[in-house]
Write a structure and sequence with these properties.
The protein is an alpha/beta fold and 223 residues long. The chain folds into two domains: 140 residues, Rossmann fold (3-Layer(aba) Sandwich); 69 residues, 2-Layer Sandwich (Alpha-Beta Plaits), CATH 3.30.70.260. Helix content is 26%, strand content 30%. It has six helices and 16 strands. A seven-stranded mixed β-sheet has the order 3-2-1-4-7-15-16, with helices on both faces. Strands 9-12-8-13 form a four-stranded antiparallel β-sheet. The chain has a three-stranded antiparallel β-sheet with strand order 5-6-14, with helices on one face. β2, α3 and β3 form a beta-alpha-beta unit. The two termini are 26 Å apart. The mean pLDDT is 98. The chain binds ribulose-5-phosphate. Ribulose-5-phosphate binds next to α2 and α4.
C-alpha cells in the first residue's frame, strides 16, 4: 500500500468516531481530504461541520456538507485532523498546511481529538519536521532570533517567492534544528513571545486517539 492508500484507509476509519446528527470538527490537509470524501457518504446523517481552513470549507461545501462558523457552536464531540508528527503521548507537530491556528481553535472546542495519519508520522521525539509558527509579520525577525537562542533556525515560509499569507492574514516561520523533549513546556514558552499567534506544537490540544495507517491495517493508539 502506498502513502496515499494509507491516508484513504485512515480517512475512512475515522467515520467510526462521527456521531450521527452531530456537527463534526474538520481539520486540514491531504489526509483530512480523504476523511472529507468519506464523510460525504454520510452527509445526510450529520448536521454539518466546523472547518479549520478555507480549503477544507470549500471541499466540504462542494460535497454538500453544511459548514458552520466556530462561533455558532458551543462544543463539538469530535475533531478529526492529520498531523506532521505524532509521538507516543499524542503530542503533535501540525501546521504543514499553514492552518495551525484555526486547527488549534477547533481542537480546543472539541471533546475528543482523533488524529489520522500514516505510520511515517509516528516519531519517538518531535522536531525532525520543521515546527510551523504563525506570527505577526512585524515580529518575525525577533521571534526568529529567539528560536536561534534555543538552537533552532527559523525561515519565513514562501509561496511563489513571497511570504505565504495564512487564512488569518499572517506569516509562517518554519523552525528546524529543534528536539522537543518536553512539548508542554515548549508550547508554553513559545506562546509567551510577543507576536506569536500560534505555535504548531499541539501539546495542550493533543490527540486522544490516533488512527495510524500501516500496510497491515489501521492501528488505534489511545492516549
Ligand atoms: C495542516 C496540518 C495537517 O494536518 C498536516 O500538515 C498533515 O497534512 P497531510 O495530511 O497532508 O500530511 O497540520 O496545517
Amino acid at each position: 500500500m502506498n502513502q496515499d492508500e494509507l491516508k484513504t484507509l485512515v480517512g475512512q476509519a475515522a467515520l467510526y468516531y462521527v456521531e450521527p446528527g452531530s456537527i463534526v470538527g474538520v481539520g486540514t490537509g491531504s489526509t483530512v481530504n480523504k476523511f472529507i470524501d468519506a464523510l460525504a457518504t454520510m452527509k445526510d446523517r450529520i448536521a454539518g461541520a466546523v472547518s479549520s481552513s478555507v480549503a477544507s470549507t470549500e471541499r466540504l461545501q462542494a460535497l454538500g456538507i453544511q459548514v458552520f462558523d466556530a462561533t455558532q457552536v458551543e462544543e463539538l464531540a469530535v475533531y478529526i485532523d492529520g498531523a506532521d508528527e505524532i509521538d507516543h503521548a499524542g503530542y503533535m507537530i501540525k501546521g504543514g498546511g499553514a492552518a495551525l491556528t484555526r486547527e488549534k481553535i477547533v481542537a480546543a472546542q472539541s471533546r475528543k481529538f482523533v488524529c489520522i495519519a500514516d505510520e511515517s508520522k509516528y516519531v519517538a521525539t518531535l522536531g525532525s519536521f520543521p515546527v510551523p509558527v504563525e506570527v505577526i509579520p512585524m515580529a518575525a525577525k525577533q521571534i526568529a532570533r529567539q528560536f536561534g537562542a534555543l538552537g533552532g533556525t527559523a525561515t519565513v515560509r514562501l509561496k511563489d517567492g513571497n511570504p505565504l499569507v495564512t487564512d488569518n492574514g499572517q506569516h509562517i516561520l518554519d523552525v528546524t534544528g529543534l528536539k522537543i523533549t518536553d512539548p508542554l513546556a515548549f508550547e508554553s514558552l513559545v506562546n509567551q513571545w510577543p507576536g506569536v499567534v500560534t505555535v504548531g506544537v499541539f501539546a495542550f490540544q493533543k490527540a486522544h486517539v490516533c488512527l495510524l495507517g500501516a500496510p497491515e491495517g489501521v492501528k488505534t493508539l489511545m492516549f
